[in-house]
Amino acid sequence: MAGEFRNESRVPTGVPGLDTLLGGGLVPGGVYLIMGRPGVGKTTLGNQACFTHVAAGGKAVYVTLLAETHARMLRNLTGMAFFNAEAIGKQIAYVGAYLVLRERRLPGLLALLRRVIADEKPTLLVLDGLTTAHSLGEPEAALKEFVAELQVLSDMSRCTTIVLANMNAQNASGAEHSMVDGLLELTLDRTAQRTVREVEILKFRGGDHFLGRHEMEISNAGLIVRPRTEMLLARRTEVGQATHYRRVSTGIDHLDAMLGGGLLASSATMLLGFSGSGKTLLSLHFLDDGAKKQEACLYFGFYEPPERLIETAQHLGMSSFRENDASGMIKIMWQPALRYSLDALAEKIIADVRERSVKRVVIDGIDGFRQGAAFPERTIRFVTALTNELRALDATVLITEETLKIFGPEVEVRVQGLSALVDNIILLEYMDVGSELKRLVSVIKQRGAGHDPNVRELCITDRGVELSPDANSASEILEGLYRVTRDPRRPRGS
What we know:
The protein has helices at residues 18-21, 42-55, 70-75, 98-120, 132-135, 140-157, 174-179, 229-236, 253-258, 279-292, 306-315, 321-327, 342-356, 367-372, 379-392, 418-421, 472-478, and strands at residues 31-35, 60-64, 92-96, 124-128, 160-165, 182-190, 195-204, 213-219, 222-226, 247-248, 263-264, 268-273, 297-301, 330-334, 360-364, 396-402, 424-433, 436-446, 456-461, 464-467. The protein is α/β, with parallel strands linked by helices and 494 residues long. The longest helix has 23 residues, at 98-120. The protein folds into 2 domains: 18-227, 3-Layer(aba) Sandwich (Rossmann fold); 236-478, P-loop containing nucleotide triphosphate hydrolases (Rossmann fold, 3-Layer(aba) Sandwich). α4 (98-120) packs parallel to α6, α8 packs parallel to α15 (379-392) and α13 (342-356) packs parallel to α15. It has a 9-stranded mixed beta sheet with strand order 3-2-4-5-1-6-7-8-9.
């Protein structure tokens, strides 16, 4: 995982992203309780921690208090990338302790753990199924004493212990909450968009950690945690390079003139307009101009598959677009809106910008983030963090957003707060003139510099997007239709 934080004084969990939330991993010799109802991924996490721990040179013991056999449990893990059958019995010991707990209760279990640690000398111990003690009628006082003894045993042996339990934060007893060194809860929630796995660190002694819930995935690679982009980037985003008012061409001469020479480098611009108004085409001109200047470019979108996008560019006179895509000068990253989480998408975008030193980024269809978000209220915070990071990486960003109305003096957007986030706003709109639709373009915001406030006609030809060289033609269209106020006009929901 890009940006994974490592702390040499910690014990890694083996779960990408989780160590970042924990500030580097678990504290050696600590006892950590991982809670969650059945099916959330606790057993997978425990085994993943063991296999990755021994792959790094450690030794692990997995003790189960459940009736399920080890053979059945391991059979379900054989498809996971971390699974290594050769490590079983050599570097990882599996111990069944259900009968010991049932017959000798918690004192007998503790004696077994002492013996196992003395014999195997593990550096990581996983105890799966502590809630079995509750079902067998063990009193709260006995459980509290057991946890205290387990802490002493783990600390003295320098063996980090992970306890897995089928419970949640609401029904966990005081012993589990108060005495362990760390408390993590795994959850599985259904939202209007999709079903989401999440992890939350409720308690962690010995260091700083991320608060709140963060999305988690289970695949053939095992568990992967996606730290919330807005929290992750808030800790690491640096101030971007000074632009010195360096200008970046949009690829359209007359639009550059309206902007006073082009867009300011490392700025964020919103192309705002109804469907078909020319937002994507303007974006293609912007990328094509960058490729001609040997600047690495990235197109990220939700709606236009790569081949269709390339064909459109070629049809409109950008003949080298396919070659630039093949060479990697322009990379097209297309994702269906509901396939990946917000944080997974941010990782993909930022990783590519860093790897290729991308200077121009187009995010075509910002509403795709809102549609794909498990919790849509995150969208504006997420986009703010992502945009700030891209600007800090010295990329000039174009974001397209669709308006809700095709006509009218009021401009409504789907994602509220975007107009305050971006440095520039270019408005693309329609005018109904008799029986003909006309396209108009205007610059309604440019932070840090002046701009031409006039409206110009926009035409889509076989050479791409073209603007009228002056405002006269647009003024004739506007005259008598309705009064347009530019003082400046801002989208509703700003």
